[in-house]
Every structure is written in C-alpha cells, then in structure tokens.
Amino acid sequence: MAQVELSYRPTVEDFREALGARARVSVSVRRTRRLMALVAVCMVGAAVLSWAGDDSVDPPVVVMALVFLLVLMGQTRMQARSLHRLAAAKGEQRIVVDESGVTVATEQGSSTVTWQAVPRYAETPRLFVLLSGDKNASGVTLLPKHGTSRAGDTDRLRALLDQRASRVGETVASPGPPGS
C-alpha cells in the first residue's frame, strides 16, 4: 500500500497559492472577481466623468474607487493571512496520504478526507491542492511539497494523486524541496 507522510507548519504563501488554485476552478470565485473588476471600472469611470464634467474632482468618488481597487488587489492576500492564523493556531500538521484518503493531524485533533470528497487536485510550485468536486471547490486540502522528508516523496505523492484524483489545470514545474 502506497503511503506518503508530510509534516509542516502552514505559511501564508501556502494559503495564497491554494486560494489561487481554487480560484482557477471555482465558478463563484471567477464570477465574484469579474463583478468586482466591473464595479472598480465603473467607479473609476464615474470619477473620470465627474472630473471631466465640471473640471473638479469629487473626492469621495475618487477615494472610494482607490480603496475598492486596493481591496480588490489585496483580497487573496488578506484571505490567506486569515486562513493562516486559523491553521497556525493548531500547530504543526502531520499528514498521511494513502489509498483510503488524507488524514490531517494537529495538536488539537485529526480529520480524514476520503478520495470521494476530493476527486480532483491542482499542482502549484509549492503544493498540491486537493479540491472537492462541487463547481465552487468549497473543500480544499493543502499538501505542501516542503512537508515531505524523504527523497522521492513528492513524485510518489504526485503518482498517488494521479491514481486517486483528476488533475485540473496545468502542472507547474518547480525545483521542489530538497530530497523530492
């Protein structure tokens, strides 16, 4: 029976990459991003029209447009930091991936996810991201490559994932952690 063990402490960058991978397959995330971009464009357009109409700038419109653009650009980073705080509070994560699924154990408890619950995955430079099968990928499990400890574990993990889940998106080549 193939089994890969990982051990790591979550980082903000892990969550940022996972959210990016999820965004590429989630219908609701893509829709929300398009809507937010449209609102930002409309706000900038309103500021420009306000300025062009009477040669004066309406400060609240400009300030709201700038704040909205900043929030739009930093949204993923803010979410990643929030998720990191929650995960970091649980301490080190020990993960076992095998034929039956994925078990994540922390100082506060453990949980097991079956392959039926995460039938697809994406690979990023730093991690494998297991995704639920619904159209919004509401379930996400992170498997950081830097959590592997033995030579070849990253390749063995990729092979196990290919057997049990469907790969989504393009595989991202990476140098990987030492011993991968």
What would you say this structure looks like, in words?
- InterPro entries: YcxB-like_C.
- Pfam families: YcxB.
- The chain crosses the membrane at residues 35-53, 59-76.
- The chain has 180 residues and is of the alpha+beta class.
- The chain folds into 2 domains: 3-11 and 88-167, Pleckstrin-homology domain (PH domain)/Phosphotyrosine-binding domain (PTB) (PH-domain like, Roll); 28-85.
- Helix content is 47%, strand content 22%.
- It has 4 helices and 8 strands.
- A 4-stranded antiparallel β-sheet has the order 1-2-3-4, with helices on one face.
- Strand 6 (127-131) and strand 7 form a beta hairpin.
- Helix 1 (12-25) crosses helix 2 (27-54) and helix 2 (27-54) runs antiparallel to helix 3.
- The longest helix is centred in the middle third of the chain and has 30 residues, at 59-88.
- The radius of gyration is 20 Å and the shape is elongated.
- Residues 173-180 have low confidence and may be disordered.
Please describe the topology of this protein.
Layout: E1 3-8, H1 12-25, H2 27-54, H3 59-88, E2 93-98, E3 101-106, E4 109-114, E5 120-123, E6 127-131, E7 140-144, H4 153-164, E8 166-167
Parallel strand pairs: 5-8
Antiparallel strand pairs: 1-2, 2-3, 3-4, 5-6, 6-7
Kindly list the characteristics that best describe this protein.
180 residues; alpha+beta; PH-domain like; 2 domains; four-stranded antiparallel beta sheet; four-stranded mixed beta sheet; 4 helices; 47% helix; membrane
